[in-house]
Amino acid sequence: MSRVVVVGAGLGGLAAAARLARLRHEVTVVERSNAVGGKAGSFGRDAFRFDTGPSLITLPATIRDLFRKTGKPVESVLELRPLDQLAHYRFADGTTLDVPNTGVNDVATAFQDAFGGRAGEQWRRFYERAERTWDVVRTPFVESALEGPAPLLRLAASRPRDAALVAPWRTLRRLGERSFDDPRLRVWLDRYATYSGSDPRKSPSVLSVVPYVEHAFGGWEVVGGVRRLVDAMYERAVDRGARVRTGAEAVAVTTAAGRVNGVRLADGTVLPVDIVVSDVDATVLYSQLLDPPRPDAVRRVRRATPSSSGFVLLLGIRGRTPQLRRHTVLFGDDPDAEFDAIFGADARPPVRPTVYISATADDAPPDCEAWFVLVNAPRHGSGRGTIDWNAPGLADRYADEVLAVMADRGVDVRDRLAFREIGTPADLETATGSPGGAIYGTSSNGWRAATLRPANRSPVPGLFLVGGSAHPGGGIPLVLMSATLVAEMIGRA
Ligand SMILES: Cc1cc2nc3c(=O)[nH]c(=O)nc-3n(C[C@H](O)[C@H](O)[C@H](O)COP(=O)(O)OP(=O)(O)OC[C@H]3O[C@@H](n4cnc5c(N)ncnc54)[C@H](O)[C@@H]3O)c2cc1C
Fold it and tell me: What is the whole-number distance in angstroms between the Cα of residue 254 and the centre of ligand 1?
């Protein structure tokens, strides 16, 4: 039995704790804040309840696998429900697209009906290509540890046609241009880069697997909100024997004779360890916590670019909306200007941006609704590519602008507001310790992004990484996969 300390009780940390406790290790989780869940946070005001992080569940198999492998199946603790509809999209020219959650044929029909021309047929061809891409990358690049470019080079040598599908130098934007005549379809595809906090003009076309996964395995929700998933994961880890300490900030991961030997907490306590699993952002781990530091790891982690952040509004809404949709995307006026604002050196709050809304009446008082609104935004900071979200008046002004943009696009809730709560990238940084409030850890910008993303096994023996800033990346499914990989690497006690 090894003494394992998991630093951070985000979804990656909790999943790793449950799996390692199941493998009979002695597991302690230390979490700096007073609640578990990290970016999968929640907020309540009056009788309104909000998930402040994820709302869309994709690849539910990753959740099912976690619960099955750590004891009882997910159905015994949680209800995962397929969405009635994947999303309702509105484009800048007023076109609307309702994407069903009932399989490829219906989706192709929806694209054809919305855009005409060859849209349905082109969408289907795109989907089939993305399916082949998923078959190629799933095992060697997503579900396996990736510790450099070797798997890609092997693929190029042995199966060049498959390697061409992966071609990391082809961008998602370029794939959209090649796949779709209609510019609105390209805008639709571009959006999937932002699912990993990335710029479609810089991220590789392999991200086409993101819409593939969404359409092939469906969009899901957790009945009662994602906070139920957090609770269930916490309970599973504790049931398996893990100890979870909240209000316990790690200030150092110490090493002796080259391997980890302890975790020092802010109150001065030192927890002796055989193994540390870090769910903290990899940049923070290598540049602030690891003691003594490893300059090679710091240099390497700084080469990966952080993901974008998000500006959030939590809206308590009076009255009921006819035909309320769970997920709505209102596309912005000028996608490229928006990506420049988010990812460019001269970062600024995007003007007339794309707005994502997740709305429900289930978490609100009678005759009311709870809306989560997200706009992709540059990270908080004072350097290049960031902005100071704490600048006086900025957050309020930007919240007004987002509500006005929604109104212009036919979703005016301004006179129905019971309240609005604002969450800026600066708030996300404070709440979760994610530098600048980066939502997904590292982005997929650049053709080497996947190989620059920090590996799950660190160069320091006994130190492992889970969570969005490590391989295979951010978002619930990938974060849960990172925990699976690390549990497999560590093995049984
Ligand atoms: C607004 C928003 C919307 C999102 N939407 C979706 C979505 O629809 N679908 C989806 O799949 N994903 C979505 N995501 C992404 C998803 O929430 C994250 O990828 C995932 O929750 C990250 O988990 P993690 O394991 O990386 O840990 P994190 O959530 O980053 O948690 C890390 C934990 O470590 C703790 N910590 C940090 N430093 C220390 C320290 N020194 N000592 C102790 N503890 C420490 C933090 O307090 C935190 O609890 C969204 C995220 C956000 C913010």
Answer: 24
Q: In what order do the strands lie in the sheet with 26-30?
A: 243-245, 26-30, 3-7, 275-278, 463-465
- Which residue range(s) make up the domain with 247? 3-39+54-73+223-304+443-490
**291, 387: one domain:** no
pLDDT tens per residue across span 362-381? 999 999 999 999 999 999 99
Q: What is the pLDDT of residues 198-248, one digit of tens each?
A: 999 999 999 999 999 999 999 999 999 999 999 999 999 999 999 999 999
Going from the Cα of 154 to the center of ligand 1, the distance in angstroms, rounded, reads 33
Distance CA 172, CA 449 (A): 13
Same domain, 212 and 229: no
448 close to 168: Cβ distance less than 8 angstroms: yes
For residue 40, the CA-to-ligand 1 centroid distance in Å is 6
pTM, full prediction: 0.96
Name every protein residue with a CB atom under 6 angstroms from any ligand 1 atom.
Answer: 7-13, 30-33, 38-40, 53-56, 249-250, 279-280, 310, 312, 374, 428, 432-434, 439-440, 467-468, 474-476, 479
Number of domains observed in the structure of the chain: 3
